[in-house]
């Protein structure tokens, strides 16, 4: 009997240890937990990173780093409503960090609060005049709002700080392409390719630019390379639809546009593109279905709404064209006057 009692004692002791908190977690400092969380985040393990960050906040609810890191995690996961209060609380602890103002701006933009988002990005720049991401992100927001001159100014400021920053070069080139400044757009796309010769997004943008200049062989060469690198790129298939449409092969263009939409079914631009092609093909019913979907999805994007309005106009849906022009104007009153639906589009 005595032997049995001695045999049970270690099992009871092991069970008591196992039911408690592991020793490594008891002794881990906040800095160590944050380091572990950041490591997990960078490895793509958001669940584990969240555990570490929340553990720190359970012990210290005002830990600035844990607040802003957890906010960034929720932003990355698309949980914008959860991210915003974390950035707000972080800024209540320390309001002088440009990066957090910038990140809050990105969250507000995702939530459709564009004016507040822009103020946050501008505040980030006031705090740190060399915070290049906020210049670039402000440019993106202003471009969406149709404030092209201001957008270009912010992009150029970002490039002063980082002359070879790929995203900013692409964004500025895209803005110029949208304004039909084709030579300038081509120059910036090629500058971006010098920095990153195999950058798929740059190849796609350059193919669109070359297509607009009717340099179809060069455009196709860029696009073929992009698709060979990323065959599941919705943007590449969209560019292919653009190229095939310009070169006169409507059937291939519509097929490519449908593939882009299959890969990204909630993309307003792709719905607009397919609607435009179907209208040219003569399928007005299907065209209007996609254009209406595009207008609904692009409710906060003035530049895209303007493009959708043009597509409505050319499909013959004049009341919907005018309604969409007015929606764009309500978002971006500083944009040049939008044409009336019954008048030729001179922009």
Explain what you see.
This protein is 77% helix and 0% strand. It has 347 residues and is mainly α. It is globular, with a radius of gyration of 26 Å. Mean pLDDT is 88; it is low at 1-26 and 335-347.
Mind sketching the topology for me?
Blueprint: H1 2-18, H2 23-27, H3 30-42, H4 46-59, H5 64-76, H6 80-93, H7 98-110, H8 114-127, H9 132-144, H10 148-161, H11 166-178, H12 182-195, H13 200-212, H14 216-229, H15 234-246, H16 250-263, H17 268-281, H18 284-297, H19 302-314, H20 318-331
Helix pairs in contact: 3-4, 4-5, 5-6, 6-7, 7-8, 7-9, 8-9, 9-10, 9-11, 10-11, 11-12, 11-13, 12-13, 13-14, 13-15, 14-15, 15-16, 15-17, 16-17, 17-18, 17-19, 18-19, 19-20
Task: Please sum up the structure shown.
This protein has 347 residues and is an all-alpha fold. It has helices at residues 2-18, 23-27, 30-42, 46-59, 64-76, 80-93, 98-110, 114-127, 132-144, 148-161, 166-178, 182-195, 200-212, 216-229, 234-246, 250-263, 268-281, 284-297, 302-314, 318-331.
End-to-end C-alpha gap? 97 Å
Report the radius of gyration as a whole number of Å. Answer: 26 Å
The succession of helices and strands, N to C, reads HHHHHHHHHHHHHHHHHHHH
The assembly state of the depicted protein chains is single chain
* Anisotropy-based shape: globular
Strand segment count:
0
User: Helix proportion of residues, in percent?
Assistant: over 70%
Percent of residues in beta strands?
Answer: under 5%
Q: What can be said about the biggest beta sheet?
A: none
DSSP summary: helix tally: 20
Mean pLDDT: 88
Low-confidence stretches: 1-26, 335-347
Structural class: mainly alpha
């Amino acid at each position: 009997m005595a032997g049995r009692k001695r045999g049970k004692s270690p099992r009871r002791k092991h069970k008591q240890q196992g039911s408690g908190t592991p020793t490594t977690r008891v002794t881990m400092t906040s800095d160590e937990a944050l380091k572990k969380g950041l490591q997990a985040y960078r490895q793509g393990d958001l669940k584990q990173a969240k555990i570490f960050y929340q553990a720190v906040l359970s012990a210290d609810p005002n830990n600035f780093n844990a607040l802003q890191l957890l906010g960034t995690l929720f932003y990355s996961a698309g949980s914008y409503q959860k991210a915003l209060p974390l950035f707000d609380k972080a800024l209540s602890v320390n309001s002088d960090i440009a990066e957090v103002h910038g990140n809050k701006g990105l969250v507000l933009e995702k939530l459709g609060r564009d004016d507040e988002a822009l103020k946050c990005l501008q505040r980030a720049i006031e705090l740190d005049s060399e915070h290049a991401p906020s210049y670039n992100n402000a440019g993106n927001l202003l471009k969406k709002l149709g404030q092209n001159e201001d957008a270009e100014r912010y992009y150029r400021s970002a490039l002063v700080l980082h002359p070879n920053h790929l995203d900013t070069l692409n964004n500025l080139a895209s803005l110029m392409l949208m304004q039909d400044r084709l030579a300038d757009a081509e120059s910036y796309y090629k500058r971006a390719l010098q920095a990153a010769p195999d950058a798929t997004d740059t190849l796609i943008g350059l193919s669109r630019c070359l297509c607009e200049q009717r340099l179809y062989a060069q455009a196709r060469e860029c696009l073929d390379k992009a698709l060979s690198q990323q065959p599941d790129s919705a943007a590449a298939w969209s560019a292919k639809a653009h190229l095939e449409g310009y070169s006169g092969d409507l059937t291939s263009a519509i097929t490519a546009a449908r593939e882009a939409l299959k890969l990204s079914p909630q993309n307003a631009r792709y719905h607009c593109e397919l609607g435009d092609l179907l209208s040219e093909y003569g399928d007005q019913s299907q065209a209007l279905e996609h254009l209406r979907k595009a207008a609904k999805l692009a409710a906060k994007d003035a530049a895209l709404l303007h493009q959708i309005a043009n597509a409505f106009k050319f499909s013959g849906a004049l009341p919907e064209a005018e309604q969409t022009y007015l929606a764009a104007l309500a978002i971006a009153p500083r944009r040049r006057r939008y044409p009336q639906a019954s008048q030729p589009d001179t922009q």
